[in-house]
């Protein structure tokens, strides 16, 4: 069997969760690692933009390779799909659906996943991950629910004024651990809310995070605001938290 074929020996369950808070049914993708055994327990990675993390980020193939070849601890991955028409409204902290989305994540999604899959329930065994605004909402989930989330992967997070004001107002954040990646070619990124210098915004957020004693692993390297960049960086992010 070729190495590539081995990396496809995993299970991805298509699931869905009917949310009272969002008043809709939300598609989920649940990755079960090689050798999955429901009598064991696993760390869990919750991904915003679930469809993109699986299709463009190729997280299932990457984590399988890391588990089989690089001694990564086996983990379950839960991709939470988003309707692109509502993405900014849900992920941006000033969005009209943002509060409901964060409540959905904490009050509906976690109990649903934990009742059906053998994921560990300590906050240190949960990782919440996102790209761009997905990184933003992942950080805000940890700030809103520190008893639930303390580990965040941010791939080119959109950390604009409202997020940085939230950080400035926060108490000590030494309980929070964050893997933060930004591409040096992201100085002129067009978004729904305007054009932004993501390098500048991430550097400013880094200063605020450090002032609050966040355990921060911060990386700048050449890269654009695209999955072509983030996909190649997922392995390092997974290894940072899962060994």
UniProtKB/TrEMBL annotation:
InterPro entries: AB_hydrolase_fold (IPR029058), Esterase-like (IPR000801), Mycobacterial_A85_antigen (IPR050583). The lineage of its organism: Bacteria, Bacillati, Bacillota, Bacilli, Bacillales. This is Esterase family protein. It comes from Paenibacillus silvestris.
């Amino acid at each position: 069997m070729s190495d590539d074929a081995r990396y496809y020996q995993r299970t991805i369950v298509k699931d869905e969760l009917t949310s009272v808070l969002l008043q809709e049914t939300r598609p989920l993708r649940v990755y079960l690692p090689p050798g999955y055994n429901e009598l064991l327990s696993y760390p869990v990675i919750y991904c915003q933009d679930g469809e993109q993390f699986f299709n463009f980020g190729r997280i299932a193939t990457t984590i399988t390779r890391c588990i089989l070849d690089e001694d990564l601890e086996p983990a379950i991955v839960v991709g939470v799909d988003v309707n692109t028409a509502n993405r900014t409204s849900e992920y941006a902290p000033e969005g009209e659906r943002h509060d409901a989305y964060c409540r959905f994540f904490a009050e509906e999604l976690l109990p649903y996943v934990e009742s059906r899959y053998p994921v560990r329930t300590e906050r240190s065994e949960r990782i919440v991950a996102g790209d761009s605004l997905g990184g933003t909402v992942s950080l805000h989930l940890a700030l809103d629910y520190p008893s639930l989330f303390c580990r965040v992967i941010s791939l080119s997070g959109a950390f604009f004024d409202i997020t940085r004001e939230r950080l400035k107002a926060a108490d000590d954040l030494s309980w929070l651990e964050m893997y933060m990646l930004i591409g040096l070619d992201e100085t002129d990124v067009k978004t729904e809310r305007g054009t932004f210098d993501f390098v500048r915004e991430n550097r400013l957020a880094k200063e605020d995070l450090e002032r609050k004693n966040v355990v921060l692993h911060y990386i700048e390297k050449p890269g654009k605001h695209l999955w072509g960049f983030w996909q190649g960086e997922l392995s390092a992010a997974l290894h940072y938290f899962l060994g």
